[in-house]
Amino acid sequence: MNEVGTAQRSVVVTGASGGIGRACAVAFARRGDRLALIARGRSGLDGAVREAERAGAAKVVAIEADVSDARAVEAAAQRAEEELGPIDVWVNDAFASVFAPFTEITPEEFRRVTDVTYLGYVYATRAALRRMLPRDAGVVVQVGSALAYRGIPLQSAYSGAKHAIQGFNEALRCELLASGTRVRTTMVQMPAVNTPQFDWVRSRLPERAQPVPPVYQPEVAARAVLYAADHPRRREYWVGGSTVATLVANALVPGLLDRYLARTGFDSQQNGHSRRPGEPDNLFEPVDAGHDFGAHGRFDDRARGRSLQQRAAHAFGSLAAAVRHLPGR
Fold this sequence. Notes:
The protein has 10 helices and 13 strands.
């Protein structure tokens, strides 16, 4: 599928138990799609299944798997096809992170973030393509971040992994285009989003972590993923005015942005309240195994539910698609 389709689809979402992945599950469910939801936390997965079923999904399968395990990802893909039919869309969203200065992150922690956030995308994309390429149909959507282009302090492991995904996806896109296949991959670069991650990532900050404002609700991100899955010809999508501003500034004045982030990046990622010692984190074990956190974090009071930039970009994209399909073109 290369452009908008209305037929019921089989969709796989990784990192589906919370945040953007959870919101994506609900967004696809509202279309009546069949869903395979992959995550580590049983309670979070069960909650995602209930929400997707209430939203109208034709069928939902919950699969407990760690995306850093290539064999587990392959087995999840096999089960998804056995229960739902051929995979039409695969959304990669699972990640892990550590909030700390680089010198305070251990080698084991850095490797774990890389294994989940970068190699998890690689393994999942390979599993998807093993099934899509022989059929000459399918879309892989990589959930990215403004940090795929612009690293920020206190998130060196995560920034590095997102940069790696960007390079990997660009190379893969070129190979797919060269092969002539109708399988597509596209990437969606996200802004700061109100997800539970700020309460469950490993942190060595003295204060509680927070997203750098402006903050958007995960449903804004999910709408972008849904649109990208419907319109995968475009190589990537930027979500939110803050993402656009950051990436343009990074392209034009990266050195100035380095100095700006050096002055503001530490305080802007902490909320002024002391972090409680001994808080659990999900780096090596899921926090939502016994408790469902849902899609939203604790920033509902300031998170935006709409993005004018996103609406304009989607409207322009739909117009361009309509022009391409005019008779005689």
